Structures are given as C-alpha cells and as structure tokens.
Amino acid sequence: MSEKLEQFQRYLNQMEQYRQIGEQMAWDMQTQTPKKGYGYKIDAITYFSGEKFKIATSEETGKMYEEMSAPEEYDALNDVMKLTVRRGKREYDRNKRIPADFYEEMVRASNISSKVWEEAKQKADYDLFCPHLQKMIDFRRRCMEYMEPDKDIYDTMLDMYEEGMDSATIDRLFSQMKEELVPLFQKIMEKPEPDNRCFAGDYDINSQKELEAYLLSYIGFDKEAGVMGESEHPFTMAFGPGDVRVTNHFSRHDAVDAMFSTIHEGGHAIFEQGINPDYVKTAAVDIGMGMHESQSRFYENILGRNINFWKPVYGKVGEILPQFQKIPLEVFFREINHVRPSFIRTAADELTYCFHIILRYEIEKAIFRDGVNAEELPALWNDKMEELLGIRPQNAAEGILQDMHWSDGSFGYFPTYLLGTIYDGMFLEAMEKDLGNVDTLLAEGRIAEITAWLHEKIHRHGSMRTAAETLREVCGQEVTAEPIIRYFKKKYAEIYGVDA
Amino acid sequence: MSEKLEQFQRYLNQMEQYRQIGEQMAWDMQTQTPKKGYGYKIDAITYFSGEKFKIATSEETGKMYEEMSAPEEYDALNDVMKLTVRRGKREYDRNKRIPADFYEEMVRASNISSKVWEEAKQKADYDLFCPHLQKMIDFRRRCMEYMEPDKDIYDTMLDMYEEGMDSATIDRLFSQMKEELVPLFQKIMEKPEPDNRCFAGDYDINSQKELEAYLLSYIGFDKEAGVMGESEHPFTMAFGPGDVRVTNHFSRHDAVDAMFSTIHEGGHAIFEQGINPDYVKTAAVDIGMGMHESQSRFYENILGRNINFWKPVYGKVGEILPQFQKIPLEVFFREINHVRPSFIRTAADELTYCFHIILRYEIEKAIFRDGVNAEELPALWNDKMEELLGIRPQNAAEGILQDMHWSDGSFGYFPTYLLGTIYDGMFLEAMEKDLGNVDTLLAEGRIAEITAWLHEKIHRHGSMRTAAETLREVCGQEVTAEPIIRYFKKKYAEIYGVDA
Q: Of B484, B490, B322, which is closest to residue B419 (Cα–Cα)?
C-alpha cells in the first residue's frame, strides 16, 4: 500500500469515527435523552461537528484528494476506493466553492427557519413562515450556484439526494403516473368505502412492541445486528451493517399504523444490514434516497399490503393483539388498502401517496424553474390538491405547512419517495421472472427467498452503482413507470372492482 | 476574565465533551448495542480516548496547569476553580510520572487479565487467573510508586477512590465493626429463619419496570432529568445533573432483587441530580466513591429496609405485582432483612455485607503491606470466610473469583462500600436531630423531606468537600463506626429479638 493511500485511509477512519459519535448522539437524542439533558448533547454535537468540519475542509484534505485523484495513485485503486476518492473529491470541491461566511449565514438562517416553521405549523399561520421560506429558497439557489456553477439549479438539488437523477427524467415518469393514476383514483372514489369501525379499540403498547419484534424477524431483520427504539417519528439509523437501528411510534388507539411503520423501517434496515461489510469506511455505504426508499416501500407496500403476506402470520397477530381475532383477514386487507383523499402525506394510502409527491415536485419546479415566490405557494398548493385529490385544505397546517423538509432547505428530497415506488414496480417484475409468483411465495411463508433475492441483486452492492445502473443490471432497462402503473391497476381492479 | 483562565476553560470544555461521548458510548454498549455492533463502538471509544489522552498529557496542558497554579492566576479564582486547578494539576503530575511504555504495558496486561478472569470464574479455575492477578498486583504497586513516590502504596490506592482516606482510619473503623458485629451475627444465627416460600412466583418483567418507575419517582428521582435502562449489572451514569441514568436487571423469579437495585441506583442518581449545576465542567462533580455509596446505601438500606418506608407504598406494590397482595407487609419486611451467611457479596444481606468488605480489605492489606502473593490468596480468603461468616467456599468461583475488581487492578475500591455504610450511621443520627424520627417521616410518606435534607447537606455540594470535611460539617465529628453499630444492634434486636 502506498504511503498516500495509507494516509487517506487514516483520514477515512477518522471521518468514520466522527460519524459514529454524531450518529450515536443523534440516536440518543431522538430515542431517550430526557428533557433536561438535551443541552449536554447539543454541546457535544456542536463541538465535534465543528472539529469534523475543520478536518474535512482543511487545505491538507484538499491536497490529499488531489494526490489520490492523480493517475499514479488513482489507477492502482480498487473500484470501491475509486468511488470513494471520486465522491469525496467532488464533495470537497463543491464545499470549497461555497464561501465560508455565506455557508455560516445559511446554516444560521436554516436553524431559525426550522424553529419558526414549528411555531407556524402549530398556529397554522403561513404568514409567519413565509419570509423564512423565501430566504431558504434564495439561500439554496445561491448555494447550488456556488456548488455547481455550470449546472441547472434544480437538477443539482435532485442529484444531491439521488445521484444522476434529473428533472427531465422525473417529468417523464411523474406525468405518466398522473395521467394514468388520477383517473384510476376517480373510479375508485365512485365505489363504496370499506367499513372500518371494528378497528376501534385500545391496543396494549407492550403487545404492539412484541408484534414489532415478531414482524421484523419475520421479514428478515437480524436482531443480533440491530436494535428497536421509540421516537416521535419512526426512522432507521445505521452504525454499520452490524448495528442498524429502527424506531417506531405507538398509539393505544391504532395498532395498524405501527405495524406498517415497522415493515417500512424494517425494509430500510434490511438494506443496511445487507451491505457488503467490506464497504464500511468507504463511500459505497452512502445509498441514494430513492434506492433506499425503494426497499422500505417494497416491504411496506408491495409485500406488506399484499393479502398473502399476512396469511402465514395473521394468526400470530391475533395471538399478540387479541382484538384482531375478531377481524377477518379480508377486512384487515381492505383497510390496509383503503383508498381515500386526505390532506396529510404521511397518513396517505399507497395510491394517493403518489399524488402528494407529484404535487410537491411540481411546486419545487415552479419555484426553481419558473421563479414562483413563497407568497404564491399556498394558493398553488391548494389548487393542486384540488386538481389531484379533489379536496382543498382548510388551513396551512393541513396544507403547505405540514412537512418540515422545506423549512431547512431540503428541496429536491420529496421526489425520491416516489422514485422508490417506481423502482419497486420494476423490481417486482424482475423478481417474478426469477422467483415466480410473489403471491405464492408470500402465501407459503417463503419471504426469506424474497429477501435473499433483494440482498443478492440490490442490498449487498451498497451504492457501488447509481440507481440507473442498478435498474439496468437488475431489470435490464431504463427507469420506467409502466410496471408500477400496471401493478396499481391490477391491484385496485381486484380490490375495488374498477376496470382499469 | 484573564486570557489564561479563558484558555483553561476552553480546555475544561474540551475535556468535558470528550467525557460526554465516552460516557455516551459506554451507556449504549452496556444497555443496547447489539452483538454484531460492538466493534464500531470499541473502534470509536479507542480513537477518541486516544485523542483525549494526547490532549490531557500534552506539554501544553502541563504548562497551562503551571500557569494556573501560580499565585497571580490562582489567587483570583473562586473556590470551585481553585479545586479544579488543584485536582487537575495533581492528576497531571501523577500521570506524568508514569513512564508511557510502562503505562501501556499495564493497560494491555489489565485487559488480558480481565478476560482471563472471566474465563477462570466460569471454570472456577483459580490457577488460570493466579499469574495474571500477581501481575496486576505488581503493576499496580509500581504504578503507585511512580505516582506518589513518597507515600505508602496502599494509602495511595485508597486515596484514589476516596480522597484523604487512609488505612489507619479504616483499621480503626473496621476492627470495631468486626468486634461488635460478628457476635451480633452469631446471636442471630441461633434464632429461627423466616419462612420465605411465599415469594416463589413468576413476576411479569414489564410490571417490574412499572414498579421501578414508581419507586424512583417516590424517592425523588426526577424523570425529566433521567432515564431508566437495562444492563447485566445495575449502574448509574451521569451526563450532568440534568441527565442521570440508572439501569436495572430483572428476573422473572425474583421481584425483590430489582426493587432494591432500583432504590440503590436511585440513591446514586438523586445525588447526581442534586449537584449544583454550576459545577458542571469542574472537578466539583467528581464525587468520591465512599460518599457516593453512602447515598445509594442510605436509600437502599437505612430507608428501603425500614418497614415504615413501605407503609405508604406497599399497596401500590400489590397493585403492580398482584403476588404481593398475598404477602403481608410484616413477612416482606422479615425477608428484606433476612440475615444469613452466604458466599456472594452482591447477594448478601445488610449485616453480613459488612463482613464481605472487611475480608477484602484485610486481604488487600495483606497483599500490599505484608507482601502476601497471589498463590496464597485462596486459602487466606477461605479462612477469613470461616472466621467471619462460618462458611467455607467449595470452589474459587464462589470465593476469590467472584468479583471483577481485582482483575483489572482496582485495589482499594472495596473499602469504599463499607465506608458509605459507616457514613450512613452518622448521617442518620444527624438527620434525626434536625428532622425528628425517620420512622415517622417514612410512615407518613414524607420521604421528600428526607431527600431535601440530603440535598441541602450533601448532594448540592458535589465534591467541594472531602468526605472528612462533609462529616465534620454535617455531623460535627470525625468519622466513627459507632452510630452504624448502634443502628444494627437496635434493628436486629427488634427483628430477631437478640439482646445487643
């Protein structure tokens, strides 16, 4: 090993240790730090993220990336290290182009904006938030200009969350979905709603946790390489393939919600647990959001909202939560596929969820392509809700204020949720070519074969391939929404008897 | 503020942040890290403790302590900062006298010794452990010689865990206890044993946790400034007065054990929560082990094993664990004060626990004063067990191998457990002078007044005073075993009808 490579690996190790403690403190903050203990964590996070930033942006680090990128070093590297040098250098260069005082100002503004958003949401008062949202729009626009002066601003944003993705591709995908799925949704709306009164009840929290543990194991989560926690919003966090943590939230009045959060986060976690452990401390573990979301949604929706998924385990659900003994599986199945218009994205069903994302994507494009400003957004939001879902929010809290993403400037993030769903349609068809009918596999309790296929085709590769490369390898084609549209049409034809 | 003081406070802040992440990772490792995730934590702990050590032992830090100790800086400091400079400088000087290669060798030997001890304990094979124990004895002896070349070795060890304590004092205290309490124990042994068959049962773990939460709140633990966790051995950890964490361990077959671990760790935690928050990032939060143990034992034994403690809460115990509804309070009281000889220190009752500590103290003295070597220790241990408790271990696992302390060289630690008990006798008498009869306070559910007294007299001061100074302030006298001996005699006269 060359001296320069050794030095680079020491640097990677150092960055990894800083990442470990950052994640560790974030995990603790979100799952168990008591109210009066936040200050200690914030002090430590601030101190060490400052130290990390100093190292990551030092001249010395820049020189190291220069040296590692020179042919005499670069050409001798294996593919994983090549990727790590390439991504690291790109990030270093991008960050170096941002003036330090501008960056500081943006971080400060973003912290303030997030705080104001919280208050504005509580008060359903968009006017309070509006000037801060405009600031975030302006800051992010300038930031992208610094980072990639020669590239379209919104494409740079998209690329940050899903490498190689651009709005030309998303336009094509989302417009086809809109065209096909809005009419499907309207047909469903003409059918009678399922009766869900039997789900009302008081569900013991400890039993819900027991069910979470059972379902996670069932779908393939390795308990020796993971932990379950509790937090306000469910999330997944990976220290490495050997320690992947999922959280959940529980309500005494709704056991179904936590069951699907379990399966969703379980999908994220199974991905992380399945990454080749040799990739630790390299860029090959930094998975794009779209591909990551494809796995959580594959488990949650493609598998979890299939009646066959439940056939081998529904008896166990009733054992752990006796209320379900009185609910026939068919009724449960109808309820977990209950399509209806709703204001809140995170509470939407599998079909209307797509519209919530398309709406946000169209608004982001309006901002960064057409120069629409913050003041115009609530009206735009409400019009689009009416166009897509046929309902109009009564206030901003159930409209434009509902998500935190924009408050800290995370534009370009939302589309990855729906990209994940689009990939899922493609993966499902590729999987059935290899393994045969998924309904049969699920009904026979052979979910381990599904997880093994996903491991082999997707998980173990980490981010060694871009999403486009993965789709080409696994599905033999470029990204397309047709499979997921076929899936939706077939599914709702069966459930609601709509002709597709 | 002088420039030098500012620099010193930056250093204290830096050290505090390293302490925070060290504690944070230790907490996670001991309460929830999954099996396959240990490696990440160990890597991070190793990396950052190395960095911290470099800073703490640098020439620059030494120079800073020199400057802060010079009259022109030192005299202008407040008492807390004076203490911090004094203790920090002493530690720096002590550590600087230890040759780096010797220190590394000792740390390595100590890690190996701890591992071998685990195996030896499992196999009940002292021969396996013996050479390692001898090494630890030799290493620690040399280490103390380096640290304090002009001081008695064993006194240096004692001082490390309880500042200012020495073996002349402990000799006086422990020999009096032995003289008075061994005959008391022998008298008790002539009395009939209480019948404890009614405690056999299957106790729900979640209910035991609910009881833990209830008891902690009852004794004054602030839930907004703390967390409850689970670990193999119960412990307390403080991030600061605003975040103090306790752990517990649970058995389905014994609910009493977890109840008393709760109260014990609760005592430690209430102490930490009560420290003046201005002392954070100073040496005034580093409390000596004896004084710390005095508080955990005050809650566990002086309060928790008093029948009056339970009068206001025993109904609630039966509500949470219905098995206790069939056990009269009087029977419960007899069982939690069930005196009997036993081999294992951590399972001993309040009275015989004293003998387990006296035995370890006498052996430590034999090693460091009389030069007894590791090969001779099992026989010495067994003889002393017979002398004090009238029983002889059948194997080393229930004898000399039972505790981990000596395996990593923690000699001088054990006596602090009994010092805590001795202080408790003194505190109880001082408290009753101020507040009146403790039985009455407990029976009337006025434990908050007891906690408030302990806060005022002890907790809030942190370690601004040595143990000796605290006893002088609070009890108006030097350390003495007489109050605790009076307490034991009175207690067992009432329970067992022995004449004391």
A: B484
Q: Are residues B155 and B172 in the same domain?
A: no
Q: Which of A134, A140, A132, A128 is nearest to A109 (CA)?
A: A132
Q: Which residues contact B259 (CB under 8 A, 6 or more apart)?
A: B211, B212, B215, B317
Q: What 3-state class would DSSP assign to A76?
A: coil
Residues of B marked as catalytic: 265
Residues of B in contact with A16 (CB under 8 A): 43
Tens of pLDDT, residues A152-188 = 999 999 999 999 999 999 999 999 999 999 999 999 9
Q: Answer with the one of B100, B135, B161 that is the final residue of a domain.
A: B161
A222 contact residues in B (CB cutoff 8 A): 36
Residue B241 has a CB neighbour count (10 Å cut-off) of: 26
Which of B216, B243, B244 has the most A C-beta neighbours within 10 Å, making it the best mutation to test the interface with A? Answer: B243
- Tell me how close the Cα of A329 comes to any Cα of chain B, in angstroms: 30
Please give the Cα distance from B387 to B389 (Å, whole number).
Answer: 6
* Domain count along chain A: 2
pLDDT confidence of A1, banded at 50, 70, 90?
confident
Residue B438's CATH number: 1.10.1370.30
Please tell me the distance from the alpha carbon of residue B478 to that of residue B495, in angstroms, as a whole number.
30
Q: Is the domain of B238 the same as that of B292?
A: yes
CB contact under 8 A, A47 and B13: yes
- Residues A118 and A188 both lie in one domain: no
Using CA atoms, how far apart are residues A248 and A233, in angstroms rounded to an integer? 7
Name the pTM for this structure.
0.93
Among A137, A161, A185, the domain-final residue is A161
HSE-CB for A274 with a 13 A CA cutoff:
24
B447 shares a domain with B314? yes
CB-based contact A24 B20, cutoff 8 Å: no
Spatial separation of the C-alpha atoms in residues B260 and B254, rounded to whole Å: 11
Whether residue A328 is found in the same domain as residue A257? yes
pLDDT of residue B500: 65
- Best B10, B24, B216 member to test A by mutation, with max A CBs in 10 Å, is B24
Residues of B in contact with A239 (CB under 8 A): 37, 40-41
Sequence-separated (6 or more) residues with CB below 8 Å from residue B168: none
Q: Both B171 and B156 in a single domain?
A: no
- Pair of tokens at residue A351: 């079909």
Nearest chain B residue to A19 by CA: give it. Answer: B44
**Same domain, yes or no: B217 and B343:** yes
Helix or strand holding residue A229 (H, E): strand A226-230
Residue A472: count of CB within 10 angstroms of its CB: 14
The DSSP output letter for A298 is I
Edge to edge, what strands does the sheet with B243-248 contain? B226-230, B243-248, B236-240
Interface touch B14/A40, C-beta < 8 Å: no
Domain that holds residue A371: 167-496
Q: Is the pLDDT of residue A111 over 90?
A: no
Question: A407-427, pLDDT tens digit by residue?
Answer: 999 999 999 999 999 999 999
> Within this chain, do residues A115 and A174 fall inside the same structural domain, yes or no?
no
Chain mean position to CA B62: 31
8 Å CB contact of A36 and B225:
yes
User: Looking at the partner chain, which of A16, A36, A40 has a beta carbon nearest the beta carbon of B20?
Assistant: A40
Tell me if A25 and B25 make a contact (CB, 8 A cut-off): no
- The model's confidence at residue B499, banded by pLDDT at 50, 70 and 90, is confident
Cross-chain Cβ contact A28/B32 below 8 Å: no
* Per-residue pLDDT tens digits for A21-35: 999 999 999 999 999
Smallest CA-to-CA distance from A234 within A216, A214, A253 is with A216
Is the complex ipTM more than 0.85?
yes
A379-386, Cβ contacts within 8 angstroms, sequence gap of 24 or more: A384/A359, A385/A343, A385/A359
